[in-house]
Amino acid sequence: MLKIDDLGMNGEGIAHAESGKAIFLPFYLPGEELEDGKIIKVSNFRVKPKCPYFMRCGGCSLEHLNYKRALEYKQNKVKLSFKKFKLEPKVLPCVPSEKEYFYRNKLTLKCDGEKIGLYEFNSHNLVEIAACKIASEEINKIIKILKEINLKNILEIILQSYKNNVLVTFKLKDNNFKNIILFEEKIKKIALNYGIFAYFNNNLIFKAGQEYFLKEEFNIKYYFTNNSFYQVNDEVKNKIYEKILSFISPADIVVDAYSGSGLLSAIVARKAKSVTGIEIVKSATKNAEVLKKLNNLKNLKNINGDTKKELFSLNFNTIILDPPRAGVDKKVIEILLNKKPSKIIYVSCNPITLARDINLLKEVYDIKFLEPYDMFPQTPHVETLAVLELKTAIK
Predict the structure, then answer these.
(1) In what side-by-side order are the strands of the sheet with 365-373?
(2) Catalytic-residue membership of 349
(3) Choice among 57, 60, 94, 349 that is catalytic
(4) 351, 382 in Cβ contact below 8 A?
(5) What tens digit of pLDDT does each residue of 322-370 get?
(6) What is the pTM of this model?
């Protein structure tokens, strides 16, 4: 018999063999007892998953866990990440998502012959799906239409949604787009505004509908395009941005590192003295420049470049870091320890690399705020906002 003692960093159940060796078992919960692969004692916190592809599709590996307990798990995940570096800051409760399902505004589907779907858990085997329980209702309407067309020459489909607007991007195996024309005819019959794009060898070969949609948040207008990167959960993203704004003052000279398409840079520029966004992806910087002009932001500058190369020459008293999962480059940490800005605001999708980076800053900075956000309900992933302030003795 095996007893599940805990949940791992990826949401898997952890049991221990008689030797004491840890055994990782996905889809089991603490308190459950197993015999011959069957649950003989069920956790009080186990719930029935709503998705028929649960345990096959790799998207939602925590759907069997009560939502309140899932939030507690994510708060504890952040605590444990910091504990690995012998840090024990106060971690606030995980901020919930108002939508536990149908929250994703972007979904990438894979194609294999006539099948369309998502990859199996820990593999590249395709799970054919008819709908996705965490994708928006608009995206699910599009999936239904896709099931009605020939998919054989399609590699990948990227679906994006905003209210009643959808953008659909096809990546094709050849330059034949007759099936995409048929798709457009079908999409016209449902109550959605749309933009359709088809690429072959990274070249745009078909375009229909609108090229973009206009969004407005925090008094900032911006274009929602098929090559823009924004967070997948708008409601939680806005909670994080609102909290970040609360730490910005009118005297702040801000660098927004890893600034993406520039939305946060623009929002902060409405309040701060000045903002400089740094982004390595050229298309993202181009989008940020369009956004800057659209909102007439004179105190915002966008730089296309590598943060570790651009940061040293800039003057700033506040920096916002929103790096990829790998975290911040050590060279960036060295620059921060040298320049000593009074405030570091760090947004992370990986609590381990967040804790690692803050550990490197701990001699110079105090952790003033640490709050997880449930950007990705039904999954083990968590977004975390940390705010560091220069130690009083060093100021």
Answers:
(1) 300-304, 274-279, 253-257, 318-321, 343-348, 383-390, 365-373
(2) yes
(3) 349
(4) yes
(5) 999 999 999 999 999 999 999 999 999 999 999 999 999 999 999 999 9
(6) 0.94
